[in-house]
Design brief:
Elements: H1 4-18, H2 39-53, H3 68-80
């Protein structure tokens, strides 16, 4: 079973690789847009996480104003079978 920590680590690796921000900059309370993530990059992050973990979360929920923790929570909630709410 996939854990929130695995999702967070994968999201962090994607953000540092794609946006070329330092690992120290990516924090749970950092918004995606504060890391330089626009709406397209947010969708790319969602697609990456969906493909990596085979978890369905609607890309329409990909919003640069989400924090890293909120993004991870959306995917973790799908694993737990609870309703996703941004």
């Amino acid at each position: 079973m996939v854990t929130s920590n695995e999702i967070y680590t994968t999201a962090t690796e994607f953000l540092t690789g794609q946006l070329q921000v330092s690992h120290d900059t990516v924090a749970p309370d950092a918004t995606l847009d504060s890391l330089g993530c626009d709406s397209l990059a947010a969708v790319e992050l969602f697609l990456h996480l969906k493909d990596k973990f085979n978890i369905h979360v609607d890309e329409g929920k990909a919003d640069p104003s989400l924090t890293v923790a909120q993004t991870v929570a959306l995917f973790a909630q799908e694993i737990d079978g609870t309703t996703s709410a941004p």
